[in-house]
Design a protein that fits this description.
By secondary structure, the chain is α/β, with parallel strands linked by helices. It is built from nine helices and twelve strands. The strands form two sheets. Strands 8-7-6-11-9-12-10 form a seven-stranded parallel sheet. A five-stranded mixed sheet has the order 1-4-3-5-2. Helix 5 links the parallel strand 6 and strand 7.
Length: 271
């Protein structure tokens, strides 16, 4: 592994991917307007390491020039490694420090939903979940409770956005995920694959999730909507079963990330 290249100028073209570009711009490259390959960014040693170990190709790594100790042994030999001076770190974060390292990775082709459903038994489906923190919590909880796959509609946030992967502590890299077309029509692929669609909703007429009768062989899809509005009326109507998490006091609903963790535990326990 070669020694890091010191960079003190934020305008250095070698580190252009680290500065000034938003996640969406990095994701939508590889078109006629910008032929550079689509990439994503991961922050922090644990998150970058999880991405590497999950098989994502690390293109570039930016570390603090004052970082103590040797470089991690898990770094691939073909990655370009830069050591950032204070001006560069400030241009990236607004401070003179960052979370140890920042990695730029090749963005892989997304798998089809059908390819994930072929072997899955417990999946989570998200409609209009646009907050990367919520997505990160859901992904980390899904990995913790053995959920097999994550399916998102086109309006939901990208699981590879740096804030989502950071909140998920990198677990999103090991969790298979794919995009669905617009709900509720796209739910038919789950019905055809034999999944029970369980729509999470706080409405009083929904079945308490602890009362569900689930067999170990049941294929289950938990369907969640966005924070606040929840699932659309159309998505709710497309789900034969509605379940709720019983709450006490004046709280009428949980944050979607917290609700997902509770629901994952319940269906895992039923297994």
């Amino acid at each position: 592994m070669s020694d890091p290249v010191r960079v003190d100028d934020p305008a250095d073209p070698r580190i252009a991917d680290f500065i000034g570009l938003r996640d969406r711009e990095l994701r939508t490259r590889a078109g006629a307007a910008d032929p550079r390959p689509a990439v994503f960014v991961a922050e922090g040693d644990p998150v970058v390491e999880r991405a590497v170990r999950a098989g994502y190709r690390l293109r570039e790594l930016l570390i603090d020039a004052e970082r103590p100790g040797p470089l991690p042994a898990w770094l691939p030999s073909d990655a370009a490694i830069y050591a950032a001076g204070p001006q560069v770190l400030f241009a990236i974060t607004g401070f003179g420090v960052h979370r140890g390292c920042i990695g730029v990775f090749d963005r892989p082709d997304e798998p089809s939903p059908a390819s994930l459903l072929a072997t899955a038994h417990r999946v989570v489906v998200l409609e209009r979940v646009v907050n990367p923190v919520n997505l990160g919590v859901i992904a980390r909880s899904a990995a913790a409770f053995g959920i097999d796959a994550l399916l998102l509609d086109r309006s939901s946030v990208d699981p590879l956005y740096r804030r989502a992967s950071r909140v998920a502590m990198g677990e999103v890299f090991d969790l298979p995920w794919a995009r669905l077309d617009q709900l509720p029509g796209a739910l038919t692929i789950l019905v055809d694959a034999g999944f029970r669609l369980l729509a999470l909703t706080p409405t009083p007429d929904a079945t308490p999730i602890g009362d569900l009768e689930l067999r170990p062989t049941d294929r289950v899809a938990l369907v969640f909507g966005s924070e606040g509005p929840g699932l659309s009326d159309e998505a709710l109507a497309a789900c034969p079963e509605r379940v709720r998490i019983p709450l006490s006091g004046r709280v009428d609903s949980l944050n979607v990330g917290a609700a997902a963790a509770v629901a994952f535990y319940e269906i895992t326990r039923a297994r």
